[in-house]
Design a protein that fits this description.
Blueprint lengths: L14 H16 L3 H8 L3 E10 L5 E12 L5 E8 L4 H17 L5 E8 L7 H14 L9 E5 L5 H15 L20 H19 L8 E5 L3 H12 L3 E7 L2 E4 L6 H10 L11 E3 L1 H5 L5 E4 L18 E3 L11 H6 L3 E3 L1 H4 L2 H15 L5 H26 L3 H20 L3
Parallel strand pairs: 3-4, 3-5, 6-7, 6-10, 10-11, 11-12
Antiparallel strand pairs: 1-2, 2-4, 7-8, 8-9
Helix pairs in contact: 1-3, 1-14, 3-14, 4-5, 6-7, 6-12, 6-13, 12-13, 13-14
Bound molecules: nicotinamide-adenine-dinucleotide (NAD).
């Protein structure tokens, strides 16, 4: 399943501006000086390339591609590549900045980046996509590099494209460089544990939040929106810890059972039905909107952005929201959620288990040594727990919601590093 990273957007406004609205609040609480604010806000590098590719009918078509390195202050920049006919520079800028904050929250030595090519992969042959990927790699040969900028899959790309990118980069350098990209197939140096990493991080942060809220997981109920990679793993791992999952959903609708849904059965059903829950008999059908406002202790939005907005936030009954998806809560819902006293473990913390294990992939490639699944899991759980504790302590210290606290942790780390390194 392709890894996707939509920006945390605010009711479909300009994604860069909506990311900045939360950044600005955190910067103000932190008392960030104007000069550092400007440095942290501005992308370090924005590259636009035009890629002539020979199509299967012999014609040459030119594709526009982008790579934005938002920051390389903490280390080489990291971020996915999106193949989408609607991708645009401002979106890529927002996504790149957002990767900077995400890596900083979990204390990974990476800056943030993002890339995109304006294309519709659903209308292209595998050969055309391969030539496009190789052309993009060559055009950005001076930007990419295991110590400079490390791409990964995003919307419209997956392990196949990462394999081509790694191969083209390696040919150009005259040696195998698998650490130039993450999200590779396992045989090319992908990491064990990457598939479940994001859902696992959601579970670990939910457990940590329940502990500080004095909630007993075995006496708690949950609803999970989205039953793809993140949602199904989060539901499975929460259920394993005793949380009763009353509702799950996907694009076909939501499914509810007062006695708790058997998640293993739901996953088996989905796998046998083209990835969808439609027709699942272990629960009653309800709507996705009902699921979000249902009476549960924990709500895990793990599907798409902007599902909790000013229109439904006042109806939410959960005590805890753990954001598996990117940007599921629009900025204009933040105040309502906060006034209701609901704790939100924000996306840049809750779903960062994915980038954490991508970092492990890079570490393993550089070591030339494969870690066991147990080692990956133990280390990623520790990173997620430490990140949660740090964000929680920051929210207590500044008396701010967890989302702003996560931005404060991230901005503070990048700002402090910048001050030590200095400019020109
Ligand atoms: P996926 O494609 O595997 O699954 C998405 C799920 O959401 C599917 O079950 C789909 O049916 C459902 N869905 C789609 N539209 C919906 C709607 N309108 N209402 C309810 N359900 C809907 O994707 P994923 O990898 O699980 O990603 C989910 C979210 O998590 C995205 O926001 C993604 O950016 C974010 N995320 C994913 C990762 C990762 O490692 N996969 C990492 C960080 C963040």
């Amino acid at each position: 399943m392709a890894y996707k990273e939509p920006a945390p957007i605010k009711d479909k406004e300009n994604p860069f501006e909506s990311m900045m609205s939360r950044f600005n609040i955190a910067a103000e609480v932190l008392g960030l000086d104007d000069e550092t604010y400007e440095v942290l806000k501005s992308p370090a590098r924005q590259v636009i390339v035009n890629l002539p590719v020979t199509m299967d009918d012999g014609r040459v078509k030119v594709f526009e591609g982008f790579r934005v390195v938002h920051s390389n202050i903490l280390g080489p920049s990291k971020g996915g590549i999106r193949y989408d006919k609607g991708v645009f520079l401002d979106e890529v800028k927002a996504l790149a900045a957002w990767m900077t904050w995400k890596c900083a929250v979990v204390d990974i030595p990476y800056g943030g980046a993002k890339g995109g090519i304006v294309c519709d992969p659903s209308t292209m042959s595998a050969g055309e996509i391969e030539r496009l990927t190789r052309a993009y790699t060559v055009a950005l040969i001076d930007t990419f590099g295991p110590d400079q900028d490390i791409p990964a899959p995003d919307m419209g790309t997956g392990p196949r494209e990462m394999a081509w990118l790694m191969d083209e980069y390696s040919k150009t350098k005259g040696m195998t460089v698998n650490s130039v990209v993450t999200g590779k197939p396992l045989v090319l140096g992908g990491s064990l544990g990457r598939v479940e990493a994001t859902g696992r991080g959601v579970m670990v942060s939910a457990m940590a939040a329940m502990e500080v809220l004095g909630m007993d997981p075995t006496q708690s109920t949950a609803a999970v929106q989205g039953f793809g990679n993140v949602g199904s793993w989060a539901a499975k791992l929460l259920a394993e810890r005793g949380v009763k999952i009353l509702g799950v959903s996907d694009v076909s609708g939501a499914y509810w059972n007062d006695n708790g849904i058997n998640i293993e059965e739901a996953i088996a059903y989905k796998n046998a039905h083209n990835g969808r829950l439609e027709g699942f008999l272990g629960a009653e059908p309800i709507s996705n909107e009902e699921l979000l406002t249902s009476k549960v202790d924990v709500l895990v939005p793990a599907a798409v952005e902007d599902v909790i907005t000013a229109h439904n936030a006042h109806l939410i009954q959960a005590k805890l929201i753990v954001e598996g998806a990117n940007g599921p809560t629009s900025a204009n819902a933040d105040t309502i959620i906060n006034e209701k006293g609901i704790m939100v473990v924000p996306d840049i913390l809750a779903n960062s288990g994915g980038v954490t294990v991508s970092y492990f992939e890079w570490v393993q490639n550089r070591l030339g040594y494969k870690w066991s699944l147990d080692m990956v899991t133990e280390r990623s759980d520790r990173i997620m727990t430490e990140a949660f504790n740090k964000v929680y302590a920051t929210s207590q210290k500044f008396n701010v919601p967890m989302r702003i606290a996560a931005y404060i942790v991230a901005i503070d780390k990048v700002a402090q590093t910048y001050k030590f390194r200095g400019g020109f």
